[in-house]
Design brief:
heterodimer, A: 251 residues, alpha/beta, six-stranded mixed sheet, four-stranded antiparallel sheet, 10 strands, 36% helix, globular, B: 269 residues, mainly alpha, two-stranded antiparallel ribbon, 11 helices, 75% helix, 1% strand
Chain lengths: 251, 269
């Protein structure tokens, strides 16, 4: 099994607050890794540190390494836009642009100069198909994305991320704003996507982590407490804290 | 009660101007220059002059104001001293009486820069006057664009510049355009800033370059009302001019309202 992304002694501070502490983890390629933990444990911040989105938070400071394949993304001559191109992100609340469905998906490829009208059309269709949205929107690509339902918007955001052909996709509680049916659709989609992409998903829905992920990391107070195969974490956790959390004793 | 009083005053004023002005307004009045020592003919050069003045003024202050607003909202840190100083300056600039802008224009553009009493000097003075309006409305418009649009764009690997040009500005566009149009409306109606800097009572034909002086509606009205010897003969022209100016400003505001309304229906974030 190949390691796609790993962190070494990753620390994040917001001003004086130490949010992520000495986090070291290896994330396997073309698998789904879930990060679970109680609210405020730093899991979203950890996720944002994986593609340098954390740098947009005023007062944020990062130390340690995040290594994509062999390259430290916090290295001196690394361009953060290139990192975010390779490591895409889907947010908690669906956030399509106030543009048409087509323009939303075409945005990324255009930015990166994958131009050519025919090619762009193909990329848009392909991305929408991969995000299991094509059949629902193929006749109204020019309608505003804001007309779509929440679940459709989230799949559109996934399609938009896929359109720039990333290697890793980070998902920050992608279903927490969605109803159960929309959630099921996204979860089904994840199984399809992991054939080609490495996925890291943050969730505080334990059932979801158990259902979709291959590996699970339990995070508490900014630290990685336990990490392993999802069955191990849920059925035979070694750490007392993990045990208490997955049994639902706190959270 | 207070509302009633102010409404009835406004209503009376409008009625008075319309009833007196409507009689004189005709196609000739709008398209012919004044004749017979201003006692007859039309106000065509003044209409064109006002349109030229506001067009040039907005052409200068919109780009500058927009760039300043983009810097303030997107690039500077919100708590920095410099930003607060700039904001303070902009707000105080907004409160300065327009005659002060006129005097400044005279001292700076006409004399110091040697641009003379010209369309250019007057437009620059007007642009200075509406500059704060444009910055303030553009800043508000940019701030009203939710951060998650910016995040979505940056997360796709876009640069900050690409994000601003392709996502933030289009989303802020209605607010920016509304603010600019309101600025234009204000500039169209002002006399004081152009009084010393570029407006003339009468000239033959239209300005042929930006260094020529211009006629303008509010100034035309001002001079007819204060300096013309033959009051009884120019009075109808005065009302006609007032009505044209009023309609022009109302029309400009109406366009702003329509644009805002149109976009507000479309946007849902």
């Amino acid at each position: 099994m190949k390691i796609k992304l790993q962190t070494k002694k990753l620390n994040v501070w917001y001003g004086g607050i130490h949010v992520v502490r000495d986090f070291t983890i290896k994330i396997p390629e073309k698998r789904i890794t879930a990060v679970i933990g109680p609210s405020g444990c730093g899991k979203s911040t950890f996720l944002k540190a994986l593609n340098r989105m954390v740098e947009l938070v005023p007062g944020a400071r990062v130390s340690g390494k995040v290594i994509l394949d062999v390259k430290n993304i916090y290295g001196k001559d690394v361009d953060e836009t290139e990192i975010r191109w390779k490591i895409g992100m889907v947010f908690q609340k669906p956030n399509p642009f106030p543009k048409s469905i087509y323009e939303n998906v075409a945005y990324g490829p255009r930015i990166h100069g994958m131009a050519g009208k025919e090619k762009l059309r193909r990329i848009v269709e392909e991305s929408l198909r991969k995000a299991a949205l094509w059949e629902e929107v193929k006749d109204r690509l020019n309608v505003s994305a804001l007309e779509l339902s929440g679940g459709q918007q989230q799949r559109l955001c996934i399609a938009r991320t896929l359109a720039v052909n990333p290697e890793v996709i980070l998902m920050d509680e992608p279903c927490s704003a969605l109803d159960p049916i929309a959630t099921t659709k996204i979860e089904d989609l994840l199984f399809e996507l992991k054939k080609n992409y490495t996925i890291v998903i943050v969730t505080h829905n334990l059932q979801q982590a158990a259902r979709v992920s291959d590996y699970t990391a339990f995070m508490y107070m900014g630290e990685l407490i336990e990490y392993g195969r999802t069955e191990e974490i849920f059925e035979r956790p070694k750490n007392k804290k993990t045990q208490d959390y997955v049994m639902g004793r706190f959270g | 009660m207070a509302i009633l009083i102010s409404l009835s005053i406004t209503g009376y004023l409008l009625f008075y101007i319309i009833s007196n002005g409507a009689r004189i307004i005709s196609w000739d009045f709008l398209t012919k220059p004044p004749t017979s020592g201003m006692t007859a003919g039309g106000i065509f050069p003044a209409i064109v002059g006002t349109l030229l003045l506001v067009t040039l003024a907005i052409a200068v202050s919109l780009p500058l104001g927009l760039i300043s607003a983009i810097y303030l909202v997107e690039y500077s840190s919100k708590e920095s001293r410099f930003v607060r100083l700039v904001e303070l300056a902009v707000y105080s600039l907004n409160g300065i009486p327009s005659i002060v802008f006129g005097l400044f224009g005279l001292a700076f553009f006409v004399k110091f820069l040697g641009l003379g009493t010209s369309l250019l000097s007057a437009s620059l003075t007007l642009s200075l006057m509406i500059f704060p309006t444009i910055i303030v409305t553009s800043v508000e418009a940019l701030k009203s664009v939710p951060d998650h649009f910016r995040e979505a764009s940056l997360a796709l690997g876009a640069t900050k510049g690409q994000t601003i040009v392709k996502v933030v500005l289009p989303a802020a566009f209605p607010g920016i355009i509304t603010g600019s149009i309101l600025g234009v409306g204000r500039a169209a109606g002002e006399t004081a800033p152009i009084l010393f800097t570029g407006a003339v009572f009468y000239m033959r034909g239209l300005p042929t370059s930006i260094f020529d002086p211009v006629m303008a509606l509010p100034f035309h009205l001002f001079v007819l009302g204060t300096e013309h010897p033959n009051i009884s003969k120019v009075e109808p022209i005065q009302y006609g001019t007032a009505l044209v100016l009023l309609l022009l400003v109302l029309l400009i505001s109406l366009v702003a309202v329509v644009i805002r309304h149109w976009y507000r229906r479309k946007r849902r974030w």
